[in-house]
Amino acid sequence: MSQRVHRTKSVQLTEKTVSSLAPGAKRSDGIDLPGGGRLIVRAKSSSRNGTVREFFFRYWSDDASERALLVGRHGDGSDGRSLTLKQARAEAQRYSKVLKAGKDPQFQREMERQANREAERMAREAIEHEARKGTLSDLIASYVVHLKAQSKASALDTEKTLERHVLKPFPELAARRARDITAEDVTDVLARMIAKGIERRTNIVRSMLRAAFAYGAGLDNDPVRKAKAIKEGDLKSPKLFGITGNPVADIKRVRDYDRAGERILTDAELRSYVEAINTFHPGIAGALKFALFLGGQRMSQLLRATWKDYEAEERLLRLQDSKGRGGIRPHVLPISERLAAILEGLRGVNHEGPYIFSTRSGKTPIDVSTLSNAVSCIAAEICNKGAQEPFGAGDLRRTAETRLARLGISKDHRAQLLSHGRQSDVQTKHYDKHEYIEEKAAALAKWEAHLDSVISGETEKVIRGRFRTSA
């Protein structure tokens, strides 16, 4: 059995003794420790701090070799790094107990340091992970980017609508983490809209928020997103939302706001509407006229049109229909002389950018909400005079199709003209590639003639689905 080296008992240290220790001197503490070993203090010179005194725990290993484990630098303990004599003794007693348990204090301390570093690393990662769980504002922004990447026509409307009804009026909610949003929070948003007299749009905002949360919930476990992050060498840049449930799922739609529209404009209202269009900016007026004179086209599709989409020689306007499933579908419309003249006028003011319908020289398209607001303004003025129910853009489209039916335009040809689910069946999707240009042109010629008669106040009479001019 190895023999331990025995030392004579030293005098108990004091703070004064430690503080007065000269460079090069060493003293042992006379207090016996429970498991062996001894607390010692050494003094050395330092160019930065003068005389530095350090505590060590001296002990003997199983092979009888002497070892000294640094405990810490002597001081008043106020800086969190230095130790008083009392604190150094407590540390020495802890190491002594480790020694008594048959463990090497130096090895044990290294194990503790590794465990602490691992705990700190995990804590940092947890904080970073939490920080990357985005806010409601981040969620909405990410969802809008997703819609734009899918070329969804609803992307811009979703962005503007949620900004107007959610982010701006509820800034604290916008800054809160998306995973912490509750059904009550969403209810507050919708209740505010209802209190302001907003009906159908309330259900639309509800649907937008539900879709946004459903999108965010799938991001954390999306292998495609993670694969892209790996390729880009950055696993932490995408926002992670940590959404485990959809707060909108239990909020019912307001059924009264989903009722099918029945509003049809009268001749007088339609006449007043056409006259009022000319009071707006040429870009806005042009878009509103095109939507109406082309049989009630969707305004969102028209606003995406660029000069490359217009074939002036053939007088054809090629729109892109991205509504619904099945990807983007071409929607080709013949242009009458009246509309061609409007386009030439717009080309003179919107020649600096690609967009046909613009208020900024063609550089950016008109926002669909701008057209909706314009229709609402006209409707408010018309209805206030006649005490009629207000109308919107959807009512104009309904009015046009109803009158087209009365003009004798068949349901199939109306579907082609207004792009109603034209690729929903196998035959149309895979085999029927006819663009129905002649049929559309004939229908629009009848429609334009009908509008002219309405505007002039000489509406034609309908007999058995056909028109005859007034005598």
Quaternary structure annotation: single chain
Instruction: Give the structural class.
Output: alpha+beta
Adjacency order of strands in the biggest sheet: 1-2-3-4-5
Compute the number of strand runs.
10
The H-and-E topology, N to C, reads as HEEEEEHHHHHHHHHHHEEEHHHHHHEE
Largest sheet properties: 5 strands, mixed
- Classified by CATH, the class of the largest domain is Mainly Alpha
Could you give the distance between the termini?
A: 132 Å
Q: CATH homologous superfamily of the largest domain - what is it?
A: Intergrase catalytic core
Reported CATH architecture of the largest domain:
Orthogonal Bundle
The residue ranges in which pLDDT falls below 50 over 5 or more consecutive positions are 1-8, 422-433, 462-471
Rounded to the nearest angstrom, the radius of gyration is 40 Å
> How much helix, percentage-wise, in residues?
40-55%
**What count of helical segments does DSSP give?**
18
The proportion of strand residues reads 5-15%
- The tally of domains stands at 3
Sum up the overall morphology in one term: rod-shaped
Mean pLDDT: 83
CATH topology of the largest domain: the name is hpI Integrase, Chain A
Describe this structure in words.
This protein has about 475 residues and is α+β, with helices and mostly antiparallel strands. It has three domains: about 15-130, no CATH class; about 135-260, no CATH class; about 265-470, Orthogonal Bundle (hpI Integrase, Chain A), CATH 1.10.443.10. The protein contains 18 helices and ten strands. A hairpin with a 2-residue loop joins β9 (about 460-465) and β10. α4 packs across α8 (about 200-215) and α11 runs antiparallel to α13 (about 335-350).
